[in-house]
Amino acid sequence: MPLFSTFCKYFGRFLNAFYTLIERFARILIKLHISANMLTFLGLGFALLGLNFAALESYFLTFVCLIINRLCDVLDGAVARKTAVKPFGIFLDMFADITAAALFIWGFILGNIFENAAAGSFYLVAFMIASTALLSFSIISKQDYAALNQSGLKICYLGALQNADIFTALTLMCLLPFWFMPIAIFFGLLLIGKTLLIISGAYQTLVIARRTNA
After folding, report:
1. Are the beta carbons of 102 and 127 closer than 8 angstroms?
2. pTM score, two decimals?
3. Domain segments of the chain: what residues?
4. In whole angstroms, how far apart are CA 110 and each of 69, 118, 188?
């Protein structure tokens, strides 16, 4: 446990330093009149490049595009919070996150279609199902936000977890392309499990909690 506590301590310090740097960079971007939506579209552009490089089996360049895409996603949120968070910007950010991940996965499938098609398709379908469940719960729960806050399932935590495991999966695919099949299957099963958790949480929040409060 001391080792784990030490890891958490230094990882927390790293995150604080990272987000402090992001906040400073966001202020610079605002001074340059670069909007959050511009960063979102830039991230999508690098996702398209990543699709191209993955299809060509240039995995180092795919990884570079992935890193830049994720940095754009972090920066667009930081810029939006310092300027004005708008409904279209939120929609665009969610759309870009899902689209970018799907493009990267598709690129890996095209890169070695005979070996990667089955596992990649499973992972892509699992990702879309989990994303649909998460977004559906997010939308419908806005009608009863108080009930959502009382639930043990926090939608923001699930969203952050989804971004984290997708990034981890894509990173491993870039660094270990010959292990694509087991990576895709493992993280696909993880997404299926998360989907079941979301459905369970939705039922608890939207059905059982309402009966209890009635």
Report:
1. yes
2. 0.81
3. 1-90, 112-214
4. 20, 11, 18
Strands (E), the chain: none
Q: What's the pLDDT tens digit per position in 145-168?
A: 444 444 444 544 455 556 788 999
> What was the pLDDT predicted at 143?
53
* Residue burial 12-37, b: 16+ Cβ < 10 Å; e: rest: eeeeeeeeeebeeebeebeeeebbbb
Query: What distance in Å separates the CA atoms of residue 123 and residue 214, rounded to the nearest whole number?
Result: 40
Torsion of CA 69, 74, 76, 81, to 10 degrees: 170
| Inter-axis angle of helices 87-111 and 36-55, nearest 10 | 10
Q: Note the pLDDT tens digit of each residue in 37-72.
A: 899 999 999 999 999 999 999 999 999 999 999 999
105: exposed, middle or buried (Cβ count in 10 Å: 0-12, 13-18, 19+): buried
Burial of 104 (0-12, 13-18, 19+ CB in 10 A): buried
Which residue carries 């939006």 as its tokens?
80
Going by pLDDT thresholds of 50, 70 and 90, the confidence category of residue 210 is low
Closest CA to 158 of 206, 184, 195, 207: 195
Give dist(CA 188, CA 186) in Å, integer.
5
Half-sphere CA count of 37, side-chain side, radius 13 A: 9
